[in-house]
């Protein structure tokens, strides 16, 4: 008998459309012999399954769906929401309360990794190198001079809690700092200002498959813009992805070991992607962030990593669902 799988997509962040793409791909690629899939779109309080132009609302009391005269309960939720509420701990908390298996990290791991400042503070306790930074809240008094006494230009100014690069700026001149802060505050009530680290950007994905931890091939990302921003992530002409990365074995081992350590130390689940900058001049590997719901569309990096390993998207997505159900058994 097929298992009912809800694929949640959409959300309330700037990556809504990318999330919908990830959800559609998951619905297409999950094994049709094993699963009956339902793409559930979430936007604010509107949670629905749409077919032939008609919306069927989700009952939020038990996350069930009334469809074709039947009440459909789900054996697992495939999480494809990037940003809020899927990646910041809100949806995981909801599914944990209902005791429904889901494919992403739990409430605490999601909340910590989504908040860039808190995540940096936690991972630094594991001996991981992070960029020097300052953390600002909306309404807090701050001045350009005060910030530049703490940090050296250039800096990145970014929303503190966000699943994408929307609202992020690189600031090279003191006169542009305040405008960058105001731009970031349009996306979040908290922002992070980090010193720029010159170097090569790498990303590494990790997945738990039942009792086996699998580390994917490392990808180097070379942006054709000044930095790897939102456009660069999703417009192939603006960034080059080298997979597998052409790097010394020692660096490869370091990145993979660190990614696996953070995955276990932060108690991540499902597939996550850790991003780094490597400064060759001082042999410094600097942690950037962890994405607990990375992009899963055909343009996204993690599916390309999986295919580099010989895993089809069906293999990858089935692995995620089976692991979630196994964890909840």
Q: Main traits of this protein?
A:
globular; Dna Ligase, domain 1; 7-stranded mixed sheet; D-amino Acid Aminotransferase, Chain A, domain 1; 10 helices; alpha+beta; Rossmann fold; 3 domains; single chain; 329 residues
Question: Can you walk me through this structure?
Answer:
The protein has 329 residues and is α+β, with helices and mostly antiparallel strands. Helix content is 31%, strand content 31%. The protein has helices at 16-29, 90-98, 107-114, 116-124, 144-150, 177-185, 230-234, 249-265, 301-308, 313-328, and strands spanning 3-10, 35-43, 46-51, 54-59, 64-67, 70-72, 76-79, 129-130, 133-137, 155-159, 169-171, 190-195, 200-209, 212-215, 219-223, 239-242, 271-279, 284-291. It starts with a strand and ends with a helix. Mean pLDDT is 91; it is low at 228-232.
Major beta-sheet overview: 7 strands, mixed
Separation of the first and last Cα atoms: 18 Å
Under CATH, the topology of the largest domain is which?
D-amino Acid Aminotransferase, Chain A, domain 1
The CATH class of the largest domain turns out to be Alpha Beta
Number of helices: 10
The SSE order reads EHEEEEEEHHHEEHEEHEEEEHEHEEHH
Shape: globular
Strand residue percentage: 25-35%
Count of DSSP strands: 18
Question: What do the pLDDT scores average to?
Answer: 91
In angstroms, what is the radius of gyration? 20 Å
């Amino acid at each position: 008998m097929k298992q009912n799988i809800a694929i949640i997509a959409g959300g309330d962040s700037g990556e809504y459309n990318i999330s919908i793409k990830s959800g559609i791909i998951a619905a297409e690629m999950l094994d049709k012999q094993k699963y009956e899939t339902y793409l559930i779109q979430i936007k604010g309080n509107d949670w629905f399954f749409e077919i032939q132009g008609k919306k069927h609302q989700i009952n939020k009391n038990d996350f069930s769906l009334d469809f074709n005269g039947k009440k459909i309960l789900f054996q697992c939720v495939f999480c494809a929401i990037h940003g809020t509420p899927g990646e910041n701990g809100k949806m995981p908390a909801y599914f944990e309360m209902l005791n429904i298996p889901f494919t992403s990290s739990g409430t605490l791991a999601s909340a910590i990794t989504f908040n860039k400042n808190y995540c940096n503070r936690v991972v630094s306790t594991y001996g991981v190198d992070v960029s020097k930074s300052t953390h600002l809240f909306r309404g807090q008094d701050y001045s350009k001079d005060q910030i530049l006494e703490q940090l050296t230009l250039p800096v990145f100014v970014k929303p503190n809690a966000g699943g994408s690069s929307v609202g992020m700026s690189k600031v090279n001149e003191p006169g542009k700092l305040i405008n960058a802060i105001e731009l970031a505050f349009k996306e979040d009530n908290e922002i992070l200002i980090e010193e720029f680290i010159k170097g090569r950007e790498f990303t590494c994905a990790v997945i738990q498959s039942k009792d086996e931890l699998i580390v994917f091939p490392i990808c180097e990302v070379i942006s054709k813009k000044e930095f790897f921003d939102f456009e660069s992530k999703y417009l192939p002409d603006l960034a080059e992805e080298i997979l597998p990365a052409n790097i010394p074995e020692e660096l490869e081992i370091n990145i993979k070991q660190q990614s696996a350590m953070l995955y276990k130390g932060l108690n991540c689940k499902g597939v996550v992607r850790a991003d780094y900058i490597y400064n060759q001049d001082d042999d410094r590997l600097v942690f950037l962030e962890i994405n607990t719901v990375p992009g899963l569309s055909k343009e996204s990096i993690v599916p390309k990593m999986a295919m580099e390993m010989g895993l089809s998207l069906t293999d990858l997505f089935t692995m995620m669902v089976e692991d979630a159900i196994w964890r909840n058994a």
